[in-house]
Amino acid sequence: MARPKAFDTDAALVRAMELFWEQGYAATSMEQLVTTMGIKRQSLYDTFGDKHRLFLTALDSYCTMLKDAMLDPLRRPDAGLQALHDTGLAIIDFLVRYPKRRACLMANTTLELAPHDAEVAAKVRAHLKNMEDAFRHALVNAKARGEIAATSDADALAKYLVGMTHGLMVMAKSGADRDTLTGIMATAVAPLQPAPDFRPAA
Q: What domains appear along the chain, each with residue ranges and CATH number?
């Protein structure tokens, strides 16, 4: 009969995710992980595998957190321009929440590991696609309801919003405050507003 685990697996994983998020993959040692997670090294290996497998699991946990908090509202049947606006503000709240700015774990990982780690790169691509699909869903709704211009390209705008979001993450990590980030977002999303009727002069 297998012995029950003497620790909370989910809580330990969250602590590992936080450590990777704050320090990055390469700078995080196994000694730091077992201390932060509050488990023995063998327990880490038995439950999560090696450091790399643990990191991949932490990435999955992080993506689930973002999906639940920020992407699912954009996938609701009635999601439109207001949902896009609310999500933008939620992203800014998320970015300025921590005294020591961390940006986004996926954005950090894209720069640190994705260029030379195929498994990480696949997870990054899947995350970006999920973001793009969520933005596209709300944009298509907004276009159908006349909340944005009928000539808007939902596919192009969805990609644009993904890029804008990652730009906000970089600015936040460099120390930009909430007002600065909100101003950037307001300028960036200006193209989403309906174009006013144009009436040439008589």
A: 59-191 (1.10.357.10)
